[in-house]
Write a structure and sequence with these properties.
By secondary structure, this protein is an alpha+beta fold. 37% of the residues lie in helices and 25% in strands. The radius of gyration is 19 Å and the shape is globular. It starts with a strand and ends with a strand.
């Protein structure tokens, strides 16, 4: 069939500023050790995450000063716009297309707000047509790399031949808080980075992989596991310590249910391509999915080199998996606020 949705191309990008994990640990120590009683105990997280470096929207010295909403959102608009341009341009070039060919753009982000939305701000610079459909999506968090791609897939499937551009941009570092003397905020300083990804989709022939199925699972009574609290200073992270245990306990049945709705079994998946939320989460994923310990090797490489960038991180994993060679059938998997799990299956195009 020629009306199946194909992934034509993928591109990723990061901000130019790099923070080594050793420098992040030293800076966090100066900023928090005298004010937070348990910092010495929590400081071990800078080593246990397996992260070597991260890319961030602003130089390290920026984070040593207090910032409010205006500073944070000005930085978001500037850097997110540039990452949008870079990833979209690269993805279109790799697909052999130009911006004027794009019929719809789906943009996901949960770490900043701008109105008009990024797609509207960049429309003239990119060269989008005036009749382009725009779908900006906020609030899906880490899961948005998969659930947002599912939205883009549905848009492409509804109009065979239409070119759909999917963009995922997160600037997690801009949520760093000097005033938040909490365990989640300290962990966030050791874990999160910034990045973006873009994909081009079209229902028709060719491409890298066929997007075979999509699905989500929303866990009941789980709102407190992950999310933002919002106040006058900005976003403040909500992150429960029980997340890895929750994933290990509940994820397998959720993913099995998603696959079953598409008449697939867990055993039909040759390779899970997972959002690497952290070292403990990756271990929990391997246990929950019945994978051999250490089998999520590309995920560990990505978090080592970039940290957890929220939604685009799984796209960085997918890019490396494509380079390594996709198996016959793989599954993209991510978890996010809600609490939710999102899954997409891909079939390799011969």
């Amino acid at each position: 069939m020629t009306d199946t949705v194909k992934l034509l191309s993928l591109a990723v990008a990061t901000p130019d500023n790099i923070i080594l994990q050793t420098d992040a640990a030293e800076t966090a120590g100066r900023l928090f050790s005298d004010r937070f009683q348990d910092f010495k105990y929590l400081a071990r997280v800078f080593e246990s995450t397996g992260i070597r470096k991260r890319h961030v929207a602003r130089p390290l010295c920026w984070f040593e000063e207090p910032h409010g909403w205006q500073d944070r959102m000005a930085a978001y608009t500037e850097v997110a716009s540039e990452l949008f341009r870079r990833t979209a341009t690269a993805a279109l070039q790799r697909a052999g297309l130009e911006a004027r060919h794009v019929d719809c753009v789906v943009t996901v982000s949960s770490t900043g707000l701008t109105t008009p939305s990024l797609d509207a701000r960049l429309a003239g610079l990119m060269g989008f047509r005036s009749d382009i459909e725009r779908v900006p999506v906020f609030g899906l968090g880490c899961a948005a790399g998969v659930s947002g791609l599912a939205v883009a897939t549905k848009m492409a499937r509804s109009r065979p031949g239409a070119v759909v551009l999917f963009i995922s941009i997160e600037l997690c570092s801009l949520a760093f808080r000097l005033d938040e003397l909490t365990r989640p905020n300290i962990i966030a300083t050791a874990l999160f980075g910034d990045g973006a990804a873009a994909c081009v989709l079209r229902a028709g022939e060719g491409g890298i992989a066929e997007i075979e199925s999509t699905g989500e699972h929303l866990f009941p009574d789980s709102l407190s596991i992950m999310g933002w609290k919002i106040d006058d200073t900005g976003f403040g992270i909500i992150l429960e310590q029980s997340l890895p245990v929750f994933a290990e306990t509940h994820l397998k049945s959720a993913v099995a249910g998603i696959l079953e709705r598409s008449r697939l079994l867990l055993s039909d998946i040759d390779r899970f391509i997972c959002h690497p939320g952290g070292a403990k989460v990756l271990a929990a994923l391997e246990s929950a999915l019945g994978l051999e310990e250490g089998s999520l090797d590309i995920e560990r490489e990505v978090i080592r080199d970039y940290g957890n960038m929220s939604s685009p991180t799984v796209m960085f994993v997918l890019e490396r998996a494509i380079t390594a060679g996709l198996p016959e059938r793989s599954a993209l998997l991510a978890m996010g606020p809600g609490f939710s799990a999102s899954c997409i299956t891909l079939k390799r195009v011969a």
